Amino acid sequence: MDFSITQDQKMMQDSLSRTLSDSVPLDRVRRYAGAPADAGADIWSAIADFGLAGVVTPEAYGGLGLTLLDAALAAQALGRAVTPGPFLGGVAAAIALNEAGSADQQTRWSPKLASGEVTAGLAISEPVAGARDGAGVTAASGKLTGKALFVTDALTADLFVVADRSGNLHLVKADAAGLTRAAMTTIDQTRRVGELTFHETPAEPLGGPGTLARLRDAAWVLLAADSLGACEVMIEKAVDYAKERRQFGRVIGSFQAVKHMCAEMAAELEPCRALVWYAAYAFDEARDESSLTAAHAKAHTSEIGRFVARTATEVHGGMGITDLLGLHFWFKRVGLNRQLLGGPERVRRLAAQIQGLAA
After folding, report:
1. pTM for the complete prediction?
2. 236 pLDDT exceeds 80?
């Protein structure tokens, strides 16, 4: 029995990595991170041209009609290249439309999302990760009031999937009346998040708590896959640096302590690959296991991601946090992935509840 990804999936991931290497090199990421007004339109265009904007959208609406596992493999490649762009929100919006959208909503929005003409942001942090004081959205008579924090691509998305306090989902256009958007400061400038403030803002209903749980599971898997890709690169960079950097007349990789650090990073990260891939597979093929496996993937990869980020930086010594090497872009990306939609402690509590081990 073969548990690995298919040859076609491997080819897709390799081809995407080459595309990102050409279209979104680190210098382009560095310029994006250093210029808040940079919307990264050329970056998103390259991603959309590859077909990723419609990866899970049905072929009938112009998408590829693939699975979350395929989207996770793409997310892994995007994480390797610390690629900016509204991939997470777009996949989440497509899943919400696939599972709970009306025929009219699917006809209006799915083709535009699949082509990349419309981008989507995800505003479900409060009911998933817990609301901060003053945050949270309420719905009444088809209108939203309140504030949503940590919204992906809050300033640039054309459409938002918003969860209210009761777990019901809504579609909100970026130019809707009563909606204001503002940036939030986080450690990771390769992906921007912000806050949305609603004041009697018109919204379309898009499924209930069951759909929200599906979006949460998908988002957890995609964030874990992104961290997996980022960690792979950090290990590669640490090993390459250890082979080149000389100290006391020897390359530092010849010292047993440095060898152990690199070997331990690889040994800790390897199980995450199967964990993430199986969670992505379960989303479509073993739905009874989806929430538990997504929680395991998000929580464990978050913890290992922090270990790899710290250790890879230590191998680089003081150079690890300089802009010259760029290692900090991956370090901070892993840090944001860890906290978005719940840190490992909160995610593990849900996993315990699913298994009947906690109230």
Report:
1. 0.96
2. yes
